[in-house]
Structures are given as structure tokens and as C-alpha cells.
UniProtKB/TrEMBL annotation:
Keywords: Signal. One of its GO terms (cellular component) is membrane. SUPFAM superfamilies: Porins. This is Porin. It comes from Limimaricola pyoseonensis. Pfam families: Porin_4. Residues 7-340 form the Porin domain. Residues 1-19 form the signal peptide.
């Protein structure tokens, strides 16, 4: 990141401010991939390149309040220049105990919720292009968030005026009581929001999650209820370290017709340059999923990775090399036998086929 301190009169007009801080950052990628996928999503075939720039403007106001605006835009994307169009725009006013956010920011319930395993009824709406207004505040050690989606479709009132409306109210809370942590999340029902993304869930949802630690084990109990369809999920999740290995497991009871109870086990190993992660899951539709993935750090900037995932249908080998100064070289080969991973193979989300790519962060 490169920082430039400019007079607010010349860069951004925060009233009464003496100076504003503007932070620029970005990422550029140039690569080649030799395989066309069955899906059009995220498919970079042949040579591909892009440049994304992010900007943050911050200003210290009176009374300990900080005003900020963040946004990012694509400069080029597989062409030699595009019209600049900012996305992920967020305005905020924050202090030590509270914050107000507007734009492409997380909704309250989704920002706080922590599940216990793969629960079917905890699908709190995720922000993906919607305009959200959210307020955060802390009282007596409890962090609370309240939000709503700003529906840009207009409605006429009795006087014929058109105004934006707020939809799907959401609340999330988390805190600690002694050795116990808790999370409460709720979102209202909203089935007529126009232009919502696939991450929007119109159902009314409630979730409660409690965690603690004893005898070296981390334990979480969680309950989520779809109040619209009157279905619920009840789960327990445990993680326990044994030397360099952390073993875990969960079990979720599902009440909805057609949903199997889900369960899974995992083991993560880290020792020196070696990292291995493996899991097995029985999913809601009765299918099974498992993966074994690992990496070895040669301590000279080179890391070798390999893995099998998606119940054996996906596999990959790859290496990354740090070039210094935020630059990295990637070489990978990945296969997706059932064409369902859409150029996101394994946990690193490699592209199908052979790929060589250099990326720069600044």
C-alpha cells in the first residue's frame, strides 16, 4: 500500500477537517490457462489479465469519530481498457464503541453468526451487490449489529413522491459470560425484494450459538430455525488439539423432510514446513464428500501443493514462488472429472487444466 496525505480541500470535502488520508492499493494478474470449462463462470481461457485498484479515504473528525469511504474498480479485465465503474462502495462513521456503515457491507445476522457444522436452516442472507445500512455498537461487553437492505426500487406514497424503502431487517449479537461465549442472529422475512442476488434468503431465520472450552477441547452448540417453514437444525461441534494435529467433528440433526442429518470429521496437521488438512462429510442430500490437501514450504520462497477433493472427483498439483515486493508466480495443473467446480478446484480454487500466472500486489 502507498499512502498519500493531501489537504482535504483538494481531495475530499469533510467539513471542518484539516487533512484527509487517501490509501491506494491494488492487484494485477497476468496468466495463461489451456482448458475451457463446462461453465462460463470464472473461465479464463488462453491469455488473461486484469488490474483492480482499491481506494480508502479516511478523516479524523471531532469527538473521536472517523469518517471513511472505500471503493474498488477494475481498470482492465481481459482487454486493454474499460470504463471505470466503482463497486464494493462503503461509507462509514466509526468510533471506539460504535459504527455506522452504508453500501456493500455485511448484514448484521451474517456478520455475527457462527454455526456448529453444516446446518441447513442457518442460511442468513449474504451481501452480494445489495445496498445495506448497518449500525454496530457495544454495551456492557455485548457487541450488537442492526441492519437493513436498502431497496432501490421506488414506491409512491400518498403524495406521489417516490422513496427508497428498507427491507429484511437483521440483528446479530455476540459476547461472553465467564467461560461461555454466545451468538444470537435474526433476520426478518422478505419475499419481494427486487434485484436480490443468489445469496439472498427471503425466509425469517433465528439462530442461537453457544461455545466454551474445557479439558483442552473447544465445544460449540448451535440451534437455527427457519420460522417461515418451521424447520430447524441442531448441531454440536468439537475441536481438540493433539500435538501438531487438531481433530474435529460435528453432528447436526435436521427436521426438514428430505434433509439427512449431517456429520463430519476432520484432522489438520501442521509441523514445520508441512501442512495437511483432511475431512469427511455426510451431507444433507445423503451424498458424501471428502478431501485430502497438503503443502510443503521449501523455505526459499517456493511452496509445493497437492490435493484430492470433491470426493475424489477433483485433484491438483501446484507450486507458488514468492518473487518479492508483493509479486508471486503460480504454476498449477488441476482436473475436475465431474465438471462441477467451475474453475475453483480444491481449497486454493485452482483453474481447470494447466495454468501459469504471475500476480502483483501493491
Amino acid at each position: 500500500m502507498k499512502r498519500i496525505l493531501l489537504a482535504s480541500a483538494s481531495i475530499v470535502a469533510f467539513a471542518g477537517a484539516a487533512a484527509a488520508e487517501v490509501t491506494f492499493g491494488g492487484e494485477a494478474t497476468l496468466g495463461y490457462n489451456d482448458t475451457d470449462t463446462a461453465s462460463d463462470a470464472d473461465d479464463d481461457l488462453g491469455f488473461y489479465w486484469d488490474l483492480e485498484v482499491g481506494t480508502t479515504l479516511t478523516q479524523e473528525l471531532d469527538n473521536g469519530i472517523t469518517a471513511a469511504a472505500t471503493f474498488e474498480f477494475d481498470v482492465v479485465d481481459n482487454d486493454l481498457g474499460v470504463d471505470l465503474e466503482a463497486d464494493s462502495f462503503v461509507l462509514s462513521l466509526t468510533s471506539d464503541v460504535a459504527g455506522l456503515y452504508f453500501g456493500d457491507t455485511a448484514q448484521a445476522a451474517d456478520s455475527k453468526w457462527v454455526s456448529a457444522g453444516d446446518m441447513a436452516q442457518d442460511g442468513f442472507s449474504e451481501t452480494d451487490g445489495e445496498d445495506v445500512i448497518r449500525g454496530d455498537f457495544a454495551v456492557y461487553g455485548i457487541d450488537t449489529s442492526v441492519s437493513a437492505i436498502v431497496d432501490n426500487t421506488t414506491e409512491e406514497d400518498d403524495d406521489g413522491a417516490s422513496d427508497d424503502v428498507l427491507d429484511q431487517y437483521s440483528i446479530g449479537m455476540d459476547g461472553n459470560f465467564g467461560q461461555f461465549g454466545f451468538v444470537v442472529a435474526y433476520q426478518s422475512e422478505e419475499d419481494d425484494l427486487e434485484g436480490a442476488s443468489g445469496d439472498f434468503n427471503p425466509e425469517e431465520l433465528l439462530g442461537v450459538s453457544v461455545s466454551t472450552a474445557f479439558a483442552g477441547a473447544d465445544v460449540r452448540l448451535a440451534y437455527a430455525r427457519d420460522m417461515t417453514n418451521e424447520d430447524d437444525s441442531t448441531g454440536i461441534e468439537v475441536a481438540y488439539p493433539v500435538g501438531p494435529v487438531t481433530v474435529g467433528g460435528y453432528y447436526v440433526i435436521e427436521s426438514a423432510d428430505g434433509d439427512d442429518d449431517t456429520w463430519g470429521v476432520s484432522a489438520d496437521y501442521t509441523s514445520g514446513p508441512i501442512t495437511v488438512a483432511t475431512f469427511y462429510e455426510h451431507e444433507q442430500d445423503g451424498s458424501e464428500d471428502w478431501a485430502i490437501e497438503g503443502s510443503y514450504d521449501l523455505n526459499n520462497g517456493l511452496i509445493v501443493l497437492a490435493g484430492v477433493s470433491d470426493a475424489g472427483d477433483d485433484y491438483y498439483v501446484a507450486s507458488t514462488y514468492e518473487l518479492g515486493g508483493g509479486a508471486q508466480l503460480l504454476a498449477s495443473f488441476a482436473e475436475d472429472d465431474d465438471d462441477d467446480s467451475e474453475d475453483e478446484i480444491g481449497d486454493p480454487e485452482y483453474q481447470d487444466g494447466a495454468t501459469i500466472e504471475v500476480s502483483f500486489e501493491f
